[in-house]
Specification:
The chain has 16 helices and no strands. Helix 6 packs parallel to helix 13. The longest helix has 30 residues.
Length: about 325
């Protein structure tokens, strides 16, 4: 028998013995199994049958598929952040490489808004959007999770209440003051909209668990736990700044401008009923994941001047 094959059989034997399994049984299973195909591995049929329109308007299909693609990319982003957060001995090189992967995903999301901005007829959108009420992109649980994974909770609190909340604040109380809560409440009475109530009924318990789990292992906390010399690494600081700007300015403004094209000409509300302009525009809530990596001038002008890029630290 070929020596390389003998070595591989021995490795397989050791692998299965380590978990109390019999190698011969697994080899018999391999003999009976059919070859893998692209469509089985990617689950193409299942994936391509997940698009269910509520109307007969053709551009609704564009809208559905675009948002499904976003959710798949969000899942990729969460996968990368988890590797950083749970790394037992993180290095700056690993940190930088994963941050740049995540940023590239968000760069792709930002650029893809041309699909939304130029890829649908406004007349069609204004018709099928009524069938979506009260559903809203506001209800993307994965996007909320990305925020919890990225920074400390205080940086996600509504700007008006940050002075009253600290690390000793119960998670439940902090949750009620997250910045996006304002988009789902009547600003006069504080009553929660149906949109927000349904969202919380589905995800609140999971969000509270994530808030607790990632309280000290989010990207910002993970960065601050590094040795001081590593925190001063320019590649890492620039990667952090790039990610922060990409998510909280570039991507948000691309989303904002796409929405403005379709519903910004009058007093239309978003499908969920939120004041989408103040909820989405970064200058209002100043969503910033890594505030200490920005100068006072940059913080003060966050989202006010829609710069095409941020300053690279040298």
């Amino acid at each position: 028998m070929n020596k390389n094959i003998e070595q591989r059989i021995e490795l397989l034997k050791n692998k299965y013995e380590a978990i109390g399994q019999d190698l011969e049984t697994h080899l018999d299973g391999l003999i009976q199994s059919k070859p893998i195909t692209y469509w089985d591995y990617i689950q193409t049929d299942a994936l391509l049958n997940l698009q269910v329109q509520r109307t007969v308007l053709p551009d609704e299909m564009v809208f559905i598929m675009y948002h499904q693609i976003n959710e798949l990319i969000f899942k990729m982003i969460l996968w990368e952040i988890q590797q950083v957060s749970h790394h037992p001995a993180i290095t700056t090189d690993f940190f930088v490489s994963r941050l740049m992967r995540i940023s590239r995903y968000f760069d792709m999301l930002s650029a893809s808004f041309n699909i939304m901005g130029d890829g649908m007829e406004k007349e069609q959108y204004m018709k099928f959007r009524d069938t979506l009420t009260p559903a809203s992109g506001f209800q993307s649980a994965q996007y909320r999770t990305i925020e919890f994974y990225s920074t400390e909770i205080i940086n996600l609190i509504d700007y008006r209440f940050r002075a009253t909340i600290d690390r000793n604040t119960p998670y439940e109380h902090a949750f009620e003051h997250l910045y996006w809560q304002a988009a789902g409440k009547d600003h006069k009475t504080g009553k929660k909209s149906f949109l927000l109530s349904q969202f919380e009924e589905r995800y609140k318990d999971e969000f509270l668990r994530i808030m607790e789990e990632y309280n000290t292992i989010n990207l910002w906390s993970k960065f601050k736990s590094l040795p001081k010399n590593d925190q001063e690494n320019l590649d890492l600081k620039n990667a952090m700044r790039h990610y922060d700007y990409t998510v909280n300015v570039s991507w948000v403004m691309a989303h904002y401008n796409a929405a403005k094209k379709y519903i910004g000409g009058g007093d239309e509300e978003a499908t969920g009923g939120s004041d989408w302009r103040k909820y989405m525009h970064p200058k209002y809530q100043k969503r910033i994941f890594f505030p200490e990596l920005w100068s006072s001038e940059e913080l003060n002008n966050w989202g006010v001047t829609n710069l095409t890029s941020y300053k690279i630290l040298l």
